[in-house]
Amino acid sequence: MGGNLLSNYGEAIAMILFGIGFSNLLLQKNLIKKIIGLNIMDTAVYLFLAEKGFIMGRKAPIVVDGIQAVENYINPVPSGLVLTGIVVSVSVTALMLSLTIRLYRRYHTLDLDEISARLKKEGL
User: Fold this and answer.
1) CA distances (Å), 2 to each of 6, 15, 71, in order?
2) How many domains does the chain have?
3) Cβ contact 40:24 at 8 Å
4) Is 116 helix (H, G, I), strand (E, B) or coil?
5) Any transmembrane segments, and where (predicted)?
6) Is position 48 within any domain?
7) Rounded CA gap, 34 and 77, in Å?
8) Please, which pLDDT band fits residue 76 given cuts at 50, 70 and 90?
9) Residue 58 falls within a domain, yes or no?
C-alpha cells in the first residue's frame, strides 16, 4: 500500500471535507449553517472510518461457502462504528434543530451574535 495521495484519495477527501465542515462551524453566524457544518464533519469522519476499514479483495465478515480464514474478510469494527455514529449524529442533529427552533421562536433570529447580545441585555 503506497503512501501517496493517489492511493489514499478517500482519506484525503475525508480530511478536506472535515476542514470544510470545521471552517463552516467556526466562521458562520447562522445556527442552521453551523449545524450543516457539524454534519459535514460527521460525514467526513464516517468516510474516513469506512476507508480505513475497507480492504480490496476482501468480503464482508459473513461466513459463506465454508471459508472461515480471517484473511478473506474485512474488519467489522469500523463498519459498526460508522453505523453507531450515524445513529448518534441523527439524534444530535434533531436535538440541535429543535433547540434552534426554540431560539428562533424566542429571539426571531438565527444569528448567534445577535442572540448572544440579547442574552447579555436580558442579564442571563
Assistant:
1) 9, 18, 20
2) 1
3) yes
4) helix
5) 6-27, 39-57, 77-99
6) yes
7) 30
8) confident
9) yes
pTM, rounded to two decimals: 0.84
CATH number at residue 33: 1.10.287.3510
For residues 51 and 11, give the distance between their C-alpha atoms in angstroms, rounded to a whole number.
Answer: 7
What's the rounded Cα separation, in Å, for the pair 119 and 39? 27
Calculated CA dihedral for residues 42, 26, 93, 108, nearest 10 degrees: -160
- The residue with greater pLDDT, 72 or 28, is 28
Which burial class, exposed, middle or buried, applies to 44 when counting CB atoms under 10 A from its CB (0-12, 13-18, 19+)? Answer: buried
Domain membership flag for residue 66: yes
45: domain range? 9-122
Whether 31 is in a domain gets the answer yes
Query: 87-117 burial, b for 16+ CB within 10 Å, e for fewer?
Result: eebeeeeeebeeebeeeeeeeeebeeeebee
- Residue appearing with cell numbers 493517489: 6
| Ramachandran region, residue 32 (left: φ > 0; alpha: ψ -120 to 50; beta: rest) | alpha
